[in-house]
Amino acid sequence: xxxxxxxxxxxxxxxxxxxxxxxxxxxxxxxxxxxxxxxxxxxxxxxxxxxxxxxxxxxxxxxxxxxxxxxxxxxxxxxxxxxxxxxxxxxxxxxxxxxxxxxxxxxxxxxxxxxxxxxxxxxxxxxxxxxxxxxxxxxxxxxxxxxxxxxxxxxxxxxxxxxxxxxxxxxxxxxxxxxxxxxxxxxxxxxxxxxxxxxxxxxxxxxxxxxxxxxx
Length: 216
Description:
The chain is of the alpha+beta class. The protein contains 6 helices and 8 strands; from the N terminus they run ββαββββββααααα.
């Protein structure tokens, strides 16, 4: 995928609010699109040069009208696209950069659009992050116990070979954590911090963690 430069990022992007869905820079997120408003979003997205969609998690606010959104999300470039026989779409978003929501822009589109600020996350557009303190063997041992506890399986050969960023970010996306925990992983300021957060979440799950132990 061609590298997108900061100057290429648009000020306004379509936003797809989806609880528990996490996208991170240089990682991939598969999505199943079938609601009419998001089919319209997909059609409009494909007409743009950068083909960006912003993934944002809703947050629960009692008594609020339109669903409130977390302030920070991540935009992905549409890089995979296939249509099913019943008119639904399987797409893949490749993570480009996180952003901060600035202002919702009203229009005639059935989906939500926001003006966003990319500046706080300029590092997302650079090379893959490294994690010098990464203890791969210890991490994979914890991961194996976590997967067993959750009834999950994996290709351990590829996990052992994966670069630290790809490994940590892919697991952050795929593991079945609560939406608030996914948001904590998204907002982690660095790869080592995200890895530490991921380790904490797996350890809490292995202890049969309670609601109060979840990351805030």
